[in-house]
């Protein structure tokens, strides 16, 4: 999966980093991908009001989300979440096809928003994201140079 696709998903889920949900202490939960804390989740979690769509109609609900100690833990769990769950087996392998990645996420039920895939694609294609990606590719560390294996 292209790193740009993952960056676009995180930007969508967090409102460009402005709305990362706080943990139970009011500190950063580092949940950049809106991953819910299902029954098998053993780590910290936080309850938060969210909108879920049912038959295309949004409805508010309180849900439990995963909380992490840092950004590295977030990305590690995100990769494990997608690769370790058969539900998401068609999400990987899209390479630079961000729209295909986003569509596979939506089809697998990652989010209930019927516009989720389109929103990820629009974030990626936005002038702001394109500027961020250009800047990241120019840095000496070159953090965006290859696809991530999901």
Notable characteristics:
13% strand; two-stranded antiparallel ribbon; alpha+beta; globular
List the helices and strands and how they pair.
Elements: H1 3-14, E1 45-54, E2 57-66, H2 71-84, H3 98-108, H4 116-125, H5 127-138
Antiparallel strand pairs: 1-2
Helix pairs in contact: 1-4, 3-4
Descriptive overview:
- It is globular and about 40 Å long.
- Helix 1 packs across helix 4 and helix 3 runs antiparallel to helix 4.
- The model has no long low-confidence stretch (mean pLDDT 90).
- It has a two-stranded antiparallel ribbon.
- The longest helix is centred in the middle third of the chain and has 14 residues.
- The chain starts with a helix and ends in a 12-residue tail after the last helix.
- It is an alpha+beta fold and 150 residues long.
- The protein is built from five helices and two strands, in the order H-E-E-H-H-H-H.
| N→C terminal distance | 6 Å
The mean pLDDT is: 90
User: What is the number of beta strands?
Assistant: 2
Main sheet makeup:
2 strands, antiparallel
User: What characteristic shape results from the CA principal axes?
Assistant: globular
The SSE order reads: HEEHHHH
Order of strands in the sheet with the most strands?
1-2
Question: What Rg, in angstroms, do the CA atoms define?
Answer: 15 Å
Helix content: 25-40%
Low-confidence stretches: none
């Amino acid at each position: 999966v292209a790193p740009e696709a993952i960056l676009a998903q995180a930007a969508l889920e967090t409102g460009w980093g402005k709305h990362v949900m706080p943990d139970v202490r009011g500190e950063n939960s580092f949940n950049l991908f809106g991953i819910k804390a299902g029954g098998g989740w053993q780590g910290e979690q936080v309850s938060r009001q969210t909108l879920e769509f049912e038959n295309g109609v949004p409805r508010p609900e309180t849900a439990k989300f995963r909380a992490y100690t840092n950004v590295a833990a977030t990305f590690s769990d995100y990769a494990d979440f997608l690769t370790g769950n058969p539900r998401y087996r068609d999400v990987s392998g899209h390479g630079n096809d961000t729209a295909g990645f986003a569509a596979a996420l939506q089809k697998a039920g990652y989010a209930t928003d019927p516009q989720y895939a389109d929103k990820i694609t629009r974030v990626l294609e936005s002038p702001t994201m394109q500027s961020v990606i250009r800047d990241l590719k120019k840095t000496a560390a070159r953090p965006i140079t290859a696809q991530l294996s999901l």
